[in-house]
C-alpha cells in the first residue's frame, strides 16, 4: 500500500491479566491482546513498553508484524525481558518504525459467563 494507514506510537492505558480463568485453554485463557494491522509494504518492528503503578517501565519487548499482515500479540505470552505479572494493573506504549493500527482486546474468563471487550488504542497522531 503506497499510503499505509495508522501511526507510529500508540498507548493502551488499561491492562490487567487475571491469574485464572474457566474453559479450555488456550482459547478461554484470560488474556490481553494488542491486535496490530500493518498495511505497509515493509515489516513493522515494534517496541512495547509496560508501565506499572509502583515501579519503572519494563521493555522493550520486541515484535515484528510482517508487511501487509496483522498480528495479535497476547501480553500473556511476552517473556523477554520478563513475563508480565498476573493480577497487576499496567499500561503499555507501542512504538513502530512504520505506521500501524493498534486495537486492544481483553478476555476475562474468571466466570463461566465470559467478558470480552475491545477498543482502539490511543495515538496522538504524531510520529
UniProtKB/TrEMBL annotation:
A family per Pfam: ASRT
InterPro entries for the chain: ASRT, TM1070-like_sf
Gene3D superfamilies tied to this protein: TM1070-like
Name the UniProt record assigns to this protein: Sensory rhodopsin transducer
Protein source organism: Pontibacter korlensis
Amino acid at each position: 500500500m503506497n499510503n499505509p494507514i495508522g501511526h507510529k506510537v500508540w498507548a493502551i492505558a488499561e491492562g490487567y491479566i487475571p491469574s485464572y480463568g474457566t474453559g479450555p485453554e488456550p482459547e478461554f485463557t484470560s488474556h490481553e491482546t494488542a491486535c496490530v494491522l500493518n498495511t505497509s509494504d515493509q515489516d513493522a518492528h515494534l517496541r512495547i513498553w509496560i508501565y506499572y503503578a509502583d515501579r519503572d517501565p519494563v521493555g522493550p519487548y520486541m515484535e515484528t508484524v510482517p508487511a501487509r499482515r496483522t498480528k495479535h500479540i497476547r501480553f500473556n505470552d511476552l517473556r523477554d525481558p520478563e513475563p508480565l505479572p498476573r493480577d497487576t494493573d499496567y499500561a503499555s506504549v507501542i512504538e513502530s518504525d512504520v505506521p500501524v493500527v493498534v486495537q486492544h482486546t481483553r478476555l476475562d474468563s474468571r466466570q463461566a459467563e465470559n467478558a470480552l471487550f475491545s477498543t482502539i488504542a490511543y495515538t496522538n497522531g504524531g510520529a
